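Handoff note, outgoing to incoming analyst
You'll be picking up this chain. Sequence as last confirmed:
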Amino acid sequence: MVVLATTAVPDHLRGALSRWMIEVKPGLFVGTLSAKVRDELWNAASAVVGDGAAVLIQPDNTEQGFTLRTAGERRRRPVDFDGLTLVAMSPLEPKDPEPPTSEHIWPEGW
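Most recent structure output, in case you need it:
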C-alpha cells in the first residue's frame, strides 16, 4: 500500500493522482501500486508541487517497514537517526526579528 499526502498542490496533480489512487480525504491518496507506477507518479508529483508539499509513504525493507519521500518546503522534515526515520520540526521564522526600540514602545511626545 502507498500513501501520498499533498498540501496546496495544483488541481491537475490531484486529478492525475486520483486516476491511480483513491482520495480518501482532500489531499490524502491511498492505493496499491507497482513500483514503476509509484515512482512515475512521484516523479510527476514532485516536479509540479510548486509552493505546496507532498509526502509519499511506501513499504520498504527497513526496521519501520516503510520509507518516506518528501517534496516541497514545510516545517516537518524526515531525518535518518541510526536507521530510523524521525520527523524534525523546523523553528518558526520570527515575524519581527528586530527587538522593539523605545520609539516603538512609546509614541513621540509621551
